[in-house]
Amino acid sequence: MKISNVCNCAFPEWYSKFKTITTESILIPLPESFLTYLHTDGLVLPNSSTHGVYGKANNLIMDGDVEDEDLRDDELMRMYESDWSTGCSTLIAESPDFGEFDLKVKAAIKTLGGRVFPKLNWSSPKDASWIAFDKSLMCTCPSDVYLLLKSSQFISHDLDQPFDQCEDYQKDALLPSLTYTLVLRKWEPPNPASEFRCFVHNNKLIGVCQRNANKFYPHIIVNKNVVLEDICEFVKIHIAEKFVETNYVVDVVHVKQGHVILIDFNPFGPVTDALMFTWSELSDLITQIKELPCFRCVESEEGVQCSDYANFAFPQDIQDLAAGEDPYKFMDWMKILTQKEFDTSSSSEEEEGTANT
After folding, report:
1. Is-contact 181 165, C-beta < 8 A?
2. Can you tell me the distance from the alpha carbon of 123 to that of 11, in angstroms, rounded to the nearest whole number?
3. Rounded to the nearest 10 degrees, how much is the dihedral formed by the CA atoms of 306, 307, 312, 314?
4. Around Cβ 134, how many Cβ atoms within 10 Å?
5. What is the SS3 string spanning 296-333?
């Protein structure tokens, strides 16, 4: 896998050619001020971007609450906001202002129906879904987008280390100029049971697997032949020979029999998750001559895998302690426990002495 392979899989490089077979999207170049914001520690959202494209009262009303006057009382909402904004002695971080970029994001969300799915050139912030109110990547206002992007390690990798696993990458060498882009895709309720990852080598489909290995979907077993036939046909007609790369990974949705849509392209190499394969197995498949690609899915409840993103919801310190990757944090933790035991012991002795007198 080379740097050029990674660059060609960036969303802005392929979207215009394949826009008729994928979800409607709007691309917005990231200004330097926003890139700086993404690299800055801390999480402060712009004041102007905290509400959706619809009225606040409309967003607050839930199904069945139409008759509840309190939920539609703007004066009551202002009272609540006033309570939360009561002054205190705590220093408040300065809220950023992205001006025109913020307006473009709002306009794009409105154009795409008021609900969008965000990503940058390569990755989406799916590792940060835990921080969203509804635990999904659906965004209705700029602050939803900014919150997910700021909280994602995948996005940080896109910005800081997009080529670190490329064979021609050299740390001090001059890298190709990149224009980072915010991609807002029209929100479609996800259906993991219909999503598949396809591995293509020399424009030949060699492997297909269920994209969500965290659940058993019985219908995939039943419809395996139909799914595989439709995906093979889709890749052959719409993708192979049209995409600039000959080796790549492509994600698709099998909507129904005879209908497949494109999700995304990824580089053919370890930087891309092989999911239900290993890259060693995929290398072996390259040399095998088969009429149909190897197909893998979860075949029973026993085959379900743990979620790859669950650990991202835990603080980094806890992850380091659990993995034993930072001995200094472990030493600090032991000191805290020892101090706590000492304090408890001292307190008990003082109480005992007081009782005796």
Report:
1. no
2. 9
3. -50
4. 8
5. ECCCCHHHCCCCCCHHHHCCHHHHHHHHCCCHHHHHHH
What amino acid occupies position 338? T
pLDDT at 356: 57
Q: What is the pLDDT of residue 106?
A: 95
**Given a cut of 90, is residue 251 above it in pLDDT?**
yes
For residue 53, report the phi and psi dihedrals to the nearest 5 degrees: -75, -15
Distance CA 185, CA 115 (A): 9
Structure tokens at 320: 């380091």
Phi/psi at 314 (5° precision) = -95, 145
Mean pLDDT of the 130-143 span: 90
Tens of pLDDT, residue by residue over 186-234, are: 999 889 999 999 999 999 999 999 999 889 999 999 999 999 999 999 9
25 - beta bridge partners? Answer: 185
- Which residues are CB-contacts of 138 (< 8 A; sequence separation ≥ 6)? 115, 116, 117, 132, 144, 187
Q: Which two tokens stand for residue 167?
A: 């064979």
Segment 51-61, tens digit of pLDDT: 555 433 344 43
CB 108 within 8 A of CB 116: yes
